[in-house]
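Hi P.,

Sorry for the delay on this. The queue was packed all week, but I finally got your sequence through. Input first:
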Amino acid sequence: MDVKWTLKILQTFLCWNFFMTVFKCRGTGYSSSSTEFSYEDRVIKHLLRKYEERGKFGRPVQNYSDIINVTFGLQLVQIMNLDERKQILTLNVWTNYQWKDVHLRWNVTEFHGVKKINIPATEIWTPDLRLYNFADERLHERRDSLCIVDSYGGVSWIPQAVFKSSCDIDVKAFPFDKQSCHLKFGSWTYDGLQLDLYFKNDIEEMDMSEFQTSNVWHVISAVAKRNVKRYTCCAEPFIDLTFWITIRRKATFYAYTLILPCVLLTSLTLILFWIPAESPAKLTLGMSIFMAYFVLLSIFQRNIPPSETSPVLGTYYCVNMVLITMSSFLCVFVVNMSVTGTRYPVHLPKTLKKVMFTYIARALCMDNIVKPFMEDGHVTCPTTSRRYMGVNGDGSKFTNDWKGSSETLITVQKDSSNELAVIHTKVNEIRNFIKIYKERLEEKDRKEKIAKEWKVLALIFDRIFFIIYITTIIVSLMVVLPIIFDSDIEEK
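Then the structure:
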């Protein structure tokens, strides 16, 4: 009996201790959790409880007729992209919203000096400012961030955002173009009698203090303007803040990849007019330049954005394309002219010869080349003819008097008629042969002079085309270079 009673008493005691321990643990936990709330937590719970009662859809004003003033600012961080084909500007920015909320006030002394708190923007009223000219497929432009609230009801909200806005692109001066894009912000539902917009600190421009320098674009200006506008949908005025950003493309990369190769290829066409017409390299080099230019033209087509207006560089490419194409035709023209005298031994027309050899050649400093061809009449080669007639250049020893030779033969014939008759026949044959050979030499010299005249005429045309081409290249560069220099000066 004693043992049973002892076990019962021990069992009762253990159960009592167990329940007392559980009760103490629960009581301690409850009291500790209530004392862990800081005064900052109490302020947040107090304000959110009030907002839960009133809701977050109405404007935080005491009277319906009150206007809530919102200040807005943009801080440009990065120019992410400018899609010229889709005409979309993508910017990485920090937006800054500030306004007064009468429902977010508290007594600092009551909460032991708590002056500022951070609460989620989704739990309170926020202004419905939207980007009017948005060109984005995303549903959300901003990243979530907390609002900073002070004891007087001032709310500061600085979310990060990536805005994609539509922008009118003008590539007339590509790649030295300057683009001006705007971002228009305003309330989508509240008119100017309910919500008024102002710039942060009355600074009408973007904040560039955290801007990351772009490798493609140089920012010229980033100004802003406040506008009051009435729309066809509503009678009340609506207020918007429009930020204008003007950027200029950095053209150094395009100068090395698009402009310099084009200038060098066009300059190679000048060599074509210095290569002799007899050389086959004259036409081969021309066709090689023509093919290389079309490869460069395909690269240019991939880099230039589409536009209604023709860019300056596109016009420059068209001019060079015409020059390179025409150079091939002109080379064929010069080569054909140089062989015309060989194929058709016809003298140059007197008027053409006089104009080209007298005036044009003198203007091109080619007097020494055309001087041998300025004598009147046909070609005469006395030295050659006399040499084959047995006469020296000074006219001594032999003459071309066939009459004296005939008299001598007649005199000899009287002495020996048979032998001299044979000799006379042979001499006549030799005389006729020499006469025919002389005529052939004179005809050959005449044809050679005609061929040389045509070759000299082709050389004069080569020089004319060279001057025309180098003048055109210099003039085209004088049009393009000022644009390059102006862009470089503005960037500096």
